[in-house]
Amino acid sequence: MTYTAAALPSRSSLRVWLAAASVLSLLTGGNAVAETLNFDNAPAGMPPDGWTLTMTGRGEPKWTVETEPSAPSKPNVLKQSGRATFPLAIKSDTAIRNGFVEVKFKAVSGSEDRAAGLIWRAKDANNYYVVRANALEDNVVLYKTIKGVRTSLEIVGRKAGYGVSTPVTSGQWHVLRCDFAASRFKVTYDGKSLFEVEDASIVDAGMIGLWTKADSVTLFDDLTYGEIK
């Protein structure tokens, strides 16, 4: 078969296509070594070892391991019951650039907010990506936090809007996940792919962790994460 010059892709187009194909491969597969934390070996009523328990902004977050009859993997969960601008629990010994993070959560209460979130590529308490589900707003939104300022990110293929509307029922366990590779992030909620975001504000490997907002009382279990190489 003979191809004309016009039919052949340009080198720049080919590079773009190969880069996109590489990211897609990372987001949908790759060799990932996963680890799951279920907090069952930690004493109830105490903060978990190996975590930086902090916040973005001001307040008094409170992260404790608690016994919970409804826990997906019994007996314990990690509970955030304090109040702060954005309470954070950062897994301080992680450093992942391309990979995934997933958690099961239950939004218990909160009159100002009722949220559960995952963070990745965290440099510190003021610089990270976060995707969160909100039971008061019934939506899932992905943000970047740079120097303590949170900004929502636009969804690929959509010109405007704020996250994706979806039921986030209080008092019920849900699953939130983000796969991230290069500048592409894919969000999955309760097993359903919701949206993708493109952003290159934080490109280096960073820590993963958990997030809430304001007066949210939230339970977390089965935090699973891994690096894709």
TrEMBL record:
Keywords for the protein's UniProt record, in alphabetical order: Signal
Signal peptide: 1-34
Organism in which the protein naturally occurs: Bradyrhizobium manausense
Record keyword Signal present: yes
Protein's name according to its UniProt entry: 3-keto-disaccharide hydrolase domain-containing protein
